[in-house]
Each structure stands twice: as structure tokens, then as C-alpha cells.
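hey so u asked for the seq, here:
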Amino acid sequence: MKKPINYFQKWIAVLAIGFVGFACTEKEDADMNEPQSQATLTAEAFSSTSASSSNSRVIVNGFATSEFWVGSKDVEMKYAAKADLLAGISLGSITLRTNVNAGLQTAATKNQTFAIVSNGEVKSSVLGQGRTPEGNYQEVSFRLFKNTEVESTDPVYEKSLLIMGEVQGKSSNIWLNTEKMIRAKAQSTQGVEVDGQTEMVLVFDMDKLFANVDFATAVDTNADGRIDIGPGAADTNAIILAQIESNLESAVSLKKK
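ran it, C-alpha cells below
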């Protein structure tokens, strides 16, 4: 009797594995069958001084920015699904989904450092491109990325954010090395609608980033001709740094191009 019982048990196990596999496939197929569109996620700087022209120099609170670099990773996007909206469910009542494993998310989530001001001019950088579920996107979250993958001589080495410029007639560097989470909420209450080819933009508002920052108090403590504002810097500008870091999340938002 032992052999028939073993044979029967083996068939039960095979059927069970097949059922689980079928269930998993059904779930994957359901995700893939959700309507998708090609989309791009970009990032750019904004200030009231550069709003009228992409070639205007970014000067806020007396700080003239020449370079602005941001490191990002672990990007995730939350959206109200198109099917829920078409079903007549109000936006405030919809449980937001995430686009994890969609082509756009996979491309954008990699470790990267991108420029949003270069040579004193605002610029747009592409974080990722790919297909993503259709719907109204309400939030993009990402973690700052401390770059240790470049040469030690690179200005962004061991920094997650770097702003280079001039203040009080001296060159100045502002930087962070934290990998804090940033949640950029949509500027519109309706979010960013993805339906057909779409470009979503992470906006870094420098007016908000430098709000309540008194650069007149920045000092060059070690008298090396440069004002450094960063963690562990020789110059004692910790209060300015703390205000900028506190402003950071509210300075980043999401909009449609």
C-alpha cells in the first residue's frame, strides 16, 4: 500500500504547485492588463527670477546659483487608477496604487545624480522613461542618494545634494549627505493625468528652498575665500543649513509639463 499512497501524494503536490502558479500568473496578467501609457519623469529647478526665461540666472535671497545637483533613488509613484475614476469613484475616496515594477518606475528608481541648474541656467534632467499605468498621479516619493560611486575628486562625491554659487561676493557650496525620504505632492488637486504620452516634472522651487534663510549671516570662518554650508563644514553655518534642510520637502512638487 505504501507505493500507491506515495504516488497519490506526489500527484496532490503537483496539482497544488500548479494551482499556486496559475494564481500567481493570473495576478501578474491582471497587472499587465491595466491600461498603460508611455511617460517620462523629469526634474527641473524653478524660481521667480527664472520664470520668464530659461536663460535667467537663478538668484534667490542674495545667493546666485551656478550649479545644483540632486541624488535620487528608490522612486515610487502613487496614482488613482483610471478604472476607478471611470467607475465614478471620487478622487478622495480612491485607494491610491503604486506603479512598482512598471517600466517608468524601474527606470527612475536607479541610483543617479542629476543637474537642475548648470552654468547658472535652469535645466531639465530626465530621471526615467517607460510605460506606466494610466490614471491620476498624486505623489512621487524618492530617497536622496549619497553618491559614493563617482571619483573622490568629483564635486558630488559623498553628497546627496549640492548647490554651488556665490554669496557676499565669495564662492559658496551648500550640500547635504543625508538620504532622507522626499514626498513630492501634485500641485493640482486632480494630480497629473497619465493618458497617452505624458511628461511628469519634479519641480524644485528655489524660492521655497531658501525661504527664511538669511545669507547675510553666512560666514567664512576659516578665511579660505569660500563660504561652506554643509554638515561638518569648517565654516560655522549650521543654522542656515538646518533651515534649508527643513525647507527641502515642501520645496519639491509634481506637475505636468
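Residues 1-33 form one domain. The radius of gyration is 24 Å.
lmk if thats what u needed
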